[in-house]
Design a protein that fits this description.
Chain lengths: 348, 128
């Protein structure tokens, strides 16, 4: 996400050049560098109403200033944040305000009027301020420059709000909001777009300004049960606290068996699933002696004969096995295996 | 009042076949209420019942799968597929059961060396 702002009035920038000037006392420009006598001509810039949620991660941030004149000079400066929860505007000189421990170098040479300059990444400064215990979204963020070895009589000048509001200082912050706020937003959308189920859902809300935290997920209870109180899974039609089988495919596979008298036999068939892991599977069988599909196992087949049906899975195939003894009454038959494969990984 | 979601191509307003729904709030879902793995070392030429406490205070439906230590195949309960052509397992998962406190796995080792049985079990709710 991105936050951008250009300062909205002339009290949001200020400049020390022998004395502090801001608001009505600051004219077309402000600057940074050293004057003829070797004094640090510093500036302050403040951005009000910075809507960055507390707990956000700043991924990058930049301060942009626009040259007010064209000239040759070299300035070595550092930019600090003002280490306050909600720094005030610049009716007064901010030099005594606490500075952030984070700073960035801003070394600049020469100026060309109306050229926009972009600072190095100031994300560490922004992060330090929004990580303050007292930070709230909508507070103000301020910056102050400090000389870092400029030779005397080298000063860069930038457009102030009064001089050219469209070229006044500009702030860009790119950030990732805290995950609990994303959750809050999703819950809000669910509530807005699906009012018919609001009675059945308990929202995933972790922000204290909305409803109390109940749990993170979705539950729908059976009739007669209060979804807010029941913990028995049997009283819930669906609950995101519990996993379910994830259907993959089902079909039938037929294996033909040719029998000879008094013979042991093994017959194998398979189908490909190609999931790459051992999946959860269920198999049933029906042969000429069965009236319905049965769980696999060992079955009598008359006259001392028996048939045993098995299956096993590999990471690519589902195998079907018929293992039998014909006894005295050999009969050719077909066995139909009905299988269901689920995407649940056995992890074995 | 229902919450229903049909498969692709099925009109949710007219569908009546439960198989056409990905989810339908009139039907219970078959919830997995437990899921874990256990390893048992089975002594040579022996059959034993191995138990695991499930802690649910109900008798759950249980489905178990077993992979033998050196095999790249998984069998399910009640499948004694030793000596099957192409697999030649030494272990059989003869039975799987449950009571109010424990899961019970009956495993036989048909070989003269010990083998490890890797078990994955799934416990399902028992709809009332």
């Amino acid at each position: 996400m991105q936050f951008t702002e250009r300062i909205p009035n002339n009290w949001e920038n200020g400049y020390w050049a022998g004395s502090w000037a801001s608001g009505d006392d600051l004219y077309s420009s402000f600057g940074m560098g050293k004057n003829y006598y070797g004094n640090d001509n510093y500036c302050g810039i403040r951005f009000p109403n910075v809507s960055i949620p507390k707990g956000s991660t700043i991924t990058s941030a930049y301060l942009k200033l626009t040259d007010e004149e064209t000239k040759s000079c070299t300035v070595h400066a550092k930019i600090f944040g003002i280490d306050e929860d909600n720094t005030a505007d610049f009716h007064s000189d901010p030099i005594g305000r606490s500075k952030t421990s984070a700073s960035v170098d801003w070394d600049q040479v020469n100026q060309v009027v109306n050229t926009e300059r972009t600072s190095a990444d100031i994300k560490a400064i922004i992060q330090e301020i929004i990580d303050r215990a007292g930070w709230s979204s909508g507070n103000s963020i301020g910056f102050i420059s400090q000389d870092d070895g400029t030779s005397n009589d080298n000063i860069l000048r930038f457009w102030s709000y009064y001089g050219a509001s469209a070229k006044a200082p500009y702030l860009e912050i790119n950030y990732s909001p805290p995950s609990n706020l994303i959750t809050k937003d999703l819950s809000y959308k669910v509530r807005r777009s699906m009012p018919v189920i609001t009675k059945l859902l308990r929202y995933c809300i972790t922000d204290q300004e909305l409803l109390p935290v109940v749990f993170n997920g979705i539950k729908i209870s059976k009739d007669g049960h209060d979804v807010r109180n029941t913990k028995n899974p049997n009283n819930l039609k669906i609950s995101s606290d519990y996993n379910t089988l994830k259907y993959f495919l089902n079909d039938t596979h037929q294996i033909h068996v040719s029998e000879d008298e008094y013979t042991l036999y093994n017959v194998t068939g398979y189908i490909e699933h190609n999931l790459g892991y051992f999946p959860f599977a269920e198999v049933y069988v029906k042969d000429d002696l069965m009236s319905a599909y049965n769980p696999l196992g060992r079955f009598q087949a008359g006259s001392g004969a028996s048939r045993s049906y098995f299956f096993y899975v590999t990471t690519t195939r589902l195998y079907f096995i018929i293992n039998g003894w014909t006894g005295s009454s050999a009969v050719d038959f077909d066995a139909d295996f009905y299988y269901k494969i689920f995407k649940n990984n056995l992890g074995l | 009042m229902i919450l229903a979601l049909t498969k692709n191509g099925i009109d949710v307003k007219t569908a009546t076949d439960p198989n056409d729904f990905i989810y339908h709030s009139d039907y219970n879902t078959f919830k997995i209420i437990g899921n874990d793995t256990e390893d048992f070392t089975i002594p040579a030429n022996s059959t034993a019942i191995y138990t695991v406490e499930h802690g649910l205070l109900i008798v759950p439906l249980v489905k178990a799968f077993m992979r033998e230590d050196t095999k790249n195949a998984v069998v399910t309960q009640n499948n004694s597929i030793v000596d099957v052509v192409g697999l030649s397992c030494y272990l059989s998962l003869d039975a799987v059961g449950a009571d109010y406190t424990q899961l019970k796995f009956t495993i036989t080792n048909h070989d003269s060396s010990s083998h490890v049985a890797h078990i994955r079990y799934w416990l399902f709710e028992v709809p009332l």
